[in-house]
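Our preliminary data section would be incomplete without showing what the modeling component actually yields. Below, a chain of 266 amino acids is followed by its predicted structure, encoded as tokens that our downstream tools consume directly.
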Amino acid sequence: MIKNIIILIAACAFISCKNDKEIISLNVEETVKTTRLVDDFECNNTSYVFQIPFYEGDAETKKRLNKEIKNLITQDFIDVTYNKDADLEEIWSIFMSHREQKICSGDMSGITNINIEHTTQTDALISYEITYTRNGLQKRLINSFKKPELIIITTSDLTKDQKEDDVRTIFDINLQQSVANLALDVKVDDQAEFRNYVENKVFNFEKSEFENATIGIKELGVDSLMLQLTKHIELPKTFSYLNPDVKVEIRAKEMEYYLDLSPLKI
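Predicted structure:
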């Protein structure tokens, strides 16, 4: 019995140490230098362009801000040997070499393009939005980090007490409109089918999904921010050329009654 207790205490201590090691306190208040890593190549008279944000600074700052981007470009590294702790620039070089080799050999699986929609940085936060195509399907990645800790911002971090259901309902309403807005990119011959699809289906965020969702923040101008949220929807195969990671955008100022915007300093 005593032996089991000792083992349990040791296990708890190990977990605690592991968590302490993973969550390193940061105090980044200054502007983080942001550049783009951009590469392209041509195969069979087709150009392929890839670009991602790259955040500089000390080792932990780069690790935290570049983590999800690194995860994105390494998800297809099944047959690639590489140092998982390497800097993003080094990983990017391997990624581009791997992509060119695969695509030019006729293998179109994996990522075939990446585009930066925006990179936003204010005194209070850092945010980015990336769109990309993987296995023939369009995808979207949005992340925001609150300064000075550089912790990812979720909807729960901004929602006022007792306003959770209201906030989700507002985003549900806007989600429905965002899906309908995809009609702007629908082929003429598919318009009738798409209209019928949207009119006969309700789109909404699941409660747990919404509470843990990463919220993007795009700067429109001085003291004007747009809140961004994505929802993956299952589109019929007819519309496989659309991005099923639908983006919902609402001006932050319009949500003052429901959200605590003080962390965003507006």
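The CA atoms of residues 114 and 132 lie 4 Å apart. The domain at 23-152 is CATH 3.30.565 (Heat Shock Protein 90). Preliminary results of this kind motivate Aim 1 of the renewal.
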